[in-house]
Amino acid sequence: MFNNVVAACAQCSLTRCPLVSWLIDGFYRVGVCVSFVSMVVCVGVLCTAAVQIAARIGAKAGYPLADAWNMVLEVQKYLGVAHFDQRATPHVGSDSQHSRLSRRLVGTPDPQVLRPIIPGVTLPTGHLWHYLLALSICAIIHELGHAFAAARARVPLRNLGVFVMGIYPGAFVELCKTKLDQASVGSRLSIVCAGVWHNAVTVLLVFVLVRSGGLGAVFSHTGWTRVTNGVVISDVASNSPLHNRIPLLSTVYRIDDVYLQSNYSNTWNTNDRFGETSIARSPFASSRVVRIYYHLPNNQTENMLLYAGSPTELWLDVQVSSLCPRYPYLPHTLPSWIETLMQYILSFSLAFCLLNALPAYYLDGDLAFKLLITAVEQRARVARATK
To answer: Which is more confidently placed, 153 or 299?
Structure first.
């Protein structure tokens, strides 16, 4: 039944229009190019990660190889590479309040290209459902890319499904091998690269949705209000010392001497990064006293609370958002929950896009690379035959 649904979507009356058909074919041809670009980028990322690991080992042992670490940092600084720190997962649908808050609490992230994802260690346990749901969504989008491209090339599906290996979800698509082998090299390349391409498009769509304020606009038109003078506390972990100390929906507008307003002109008329390399840091950064200034819900009275402990744990235990519900029946945790889910979808889609393009066994990049060699050989034979 699903085979008929996919085929009907790929061969509907709209796609029979010459212009629409040409656009769809061009869409998947662009996907082939993007997949090979992802292949090169992924190889570069893995090589950089290998140099980082070797440099760290060399630094521990006192070998000259440690100089390579400084070289990697200089190259990354020159290229302007941004790094994602699992300790401080920013809410992607929010404004600059979160960036200032995270830098104040956890400092500058360690410039490490690859980080292992271990629940409870590098992944907050409260984000486990976001992790599993985002992984399932990205896997399904990837496999649907193969399925729709195959239906477009009139290659039927044999099996399609989802599975769970341990606690990790996944999806798969099995195509008719006979029909697939009979398809042209270009069609097979489109089918193989379609999964990576769909993940790349997902990255672009989620990024644009978040950065353009589209996600916030959706919430603003469905019952939530954007807070501009700070961040709203949407949830506090039950094991946190702040549990039942700060009421939910309170607005935190200041951490120590850092104001969390979204408009820079309301604080200082200088760049937020000006002089930050000269800021004195405590030698005991793992535990310190933090002053939290906040307003109670529907009350502009200023309140201050002292927090003594790990700033990183404070950032992970307290969920904040830039959106506040206008009506009491709306779940106040929904915006931050969706924002966190979008962050994981963005990260996992990018990981699927890069890692699946790697020319390694059981990955899409392996078959794509072989098909590319076949296409080059066919063109070479045709060129020799025409001479």
So the answer is: 153
